[in-house]
Amino acid sequence: MEENPRGWIHGDETAKAMLSRILTERPFLFLPPLHRVPLRVGNVVEIAGPSPSAKSQILLHAAVNCILPEEWKGIRFGGLGRMVMYFDLDCRFDVLRLSQILKHRIMEAYRSTNNTYWKEKGEHQKNDAPTTHMYLCDDELFLDCMRRFLYIRCYNSFEFLAALKAMHSHSQRESEALGVSVHFLMIDSIGAFYWMDRACQPMPIGGSKRKNVSLQSLAEAVVQEICKLLQMQPVLVLATKATIFGAGTSGNDAQRLAHDVNLPILRSTSSTRAFGKWCSEGKMDSRTSSREGEKLMYREYMPSSWQSFVTHRVHLQALDEIISGGEYGTLLTYASQWVQPPLNIKDKFAIRDDGIFLIT
User: Fold this and answer.
1) Coiled-coil regions in this chain (predicted)?
2) Distance in angstroms (rounded) separating the CA atoms of residues 235 and 237
3) Are 234 and 175 in contact (CB under 8 A)?
4) Rounded to 10 degrees, what is the CA torsion of 182, 183, 189, 195?
5) What is the CATH number of domain 30-244+298-316?
6) Which of 9, 47, 163, 205 is spaced 20 to 30 Å from 109 by Cα?
7) Domain residues of the chain, as ranges?
C-alpha cells in the first residue's frame, strides 16, 4: 500500500493509525541467544566470539526461520516468509549446512502434521498415499525458500562496498519478483578484511586530489552504505566478528591487563608466548563471570566508525562441556552474554539440526 509522503510529513498520526501500521506484521521470535533483547529493524547486532563459537550457525538458523513461510498448503512452519541478504566475507559459507537445516525443518513439520493426522484418523486407516503426497511437496517448498536467500560473496573491502551500493536495486528487483521484502542483512564476518586493509598503505585513488584510502575511511564508507540501505529499505543487521584474545595480545598489554585484574603473568623469553601459553594451559578461567576477566580476553580492533554504528553486542564462547543429544549424538555447548546492553545473565546453549536450544 502506497503512502502519501506529504501527508506523512505534515500530518500527525493518530494512535489507531499507528497501531494499524505497527501491527501489520507479527514480531519475529528470535532463537537463543538473541532472545534476551527486543530487536527490531534498524538495529545493528554484532555477534562476537572466537572460532569456533557457533556465530555462523546462529546466522544460518535465523536465516532459515526467516525464509520459511508461516504456512504452506495447510502445514504450519512458523517462519516469516521474507528474504535474507547474506554477505559472505570470510568465504567459508557452508551451503550444504544451510540445505541440511532447511530440509530438516521442512521434514520435521511434515512429520509432525502426519503424526497428528493419523492420531485423529486412527492407525488402522493408515496408508502411504498421504505421506507420499507430503514428501512430493518438499522440493517445491525447498526451492521456494532458497529463492528468498540472497547470497553475496566478497573477497575484499572494495568488492564489499560495490555490492552494498548495488544491493538496494538488486533486492528491490527480487522483492518485486517474489512479492516479499528483505528482513535480514547478514554479514559473516565484518572483520574478515581488517588485516588485509591494515597491511595496505594509504593510497590516493584517481589522482592526488582524491583523499587517501585507509582502514578508517573504508570502515566509514561501509557504514555509510549500510546506513543508506537502512534508510531506503529498513532491515535488521546481524554481523559476526571474530575476536582477538590470548596469544594475539601484546606482551605490554598482557602485563598491563593482568596487573589491572590482579592476575599473575608467567615469565619467559617472550611475553606474548608466555601470555598465550598461560591462557592455553587454563591459568585463566575463560568462563569467569567477572567483567575484568572478559576485558583481558577480548580486544576491540574494528575502527571507531563501526563500533559507534553497532547498537547491540553479544559475546559467544565455546565450552568444554559436551552433552548427549539423543538421535543427534553428542553436542558441543556454547555460552553467550550480552555486552550492549549489559545483562548479568549467561546463557548456555547447544545447536541441533532442528534449532538452537538452551541448557538449564
Assistant:
1) none
2) 6
3) no
4) 70
5) 3.40.50.300
6) 47
7) 30-244+298-316, 246-297
